[in-house]
Specification:
- With 133 residues, the chain is α+β, with helices and mostly antiparallel strands.
- The chain has one domain: Nucleoside Triphosphate Pyrophosphohydrolase (Alpha-Beta Complex), CATH 3.90.79.10.
């Protein structure tokens, strides 16, 4: 698959979703665990690998929740998969753990689904899609 930019996973358990809290260049926001593909990976393979690297969780992907066409200068497509089945305990790992500092913070948080409307979460389209499921 060519020109996809990012794959991520929406992990839900006990009416909570696992999000990555970020502080970057004095901006505070949340995003879904995931990342960019390595050579030859499918979006599904990228999603599983990136979640394992960032959270230590082994996930089983559910359906594709949404596909978002990026319109910024990098372009490409973002794939966001739903997951309700996983093993392990979420803890920050991989490069994000090494990069994390007060000015460039990475922190995993389980957030109540009913609180999502009060947060800045990127991409917004994924949260909108979650509400219709």
């Amino acid at each position: 698959m060519k020109n996809y930019r990012r794959s991520a996973v929406v992990i839900i358990k006990d009416n909570k979703v696992l999000l990555m809290y970020r502080v970057n260049k004095n901006k505070k926001y949340y995003c879904f665990p995931g990342g960019q593909p390595e050579e030859g990976e499918t979006p599904e393979q990228t999603a599983v690998r990136e979640v394992k690297e960032e959270t230590t969780l082994d996930v089983t992907l559910g359906k594709l929740l949404c596909k978002i066409e990026e319109t910024d200068s990098k372009g490409g497509t973002g794939y966001y998969y739903l997951c309700t089945k996983f093993t392990g305990t979420a803890k920050l790992s991989g490069p994000e753990k090494g990069f994390s500092c007060p000015e460039n913070l990475y922190e995993l948080q389980w957030i109540d689904l009913d609180k999502l409307k009060d947060l800045i979460i990127y991409p917004e389209e994924v949260v909108k899609k979650m509400r219709t499921q």
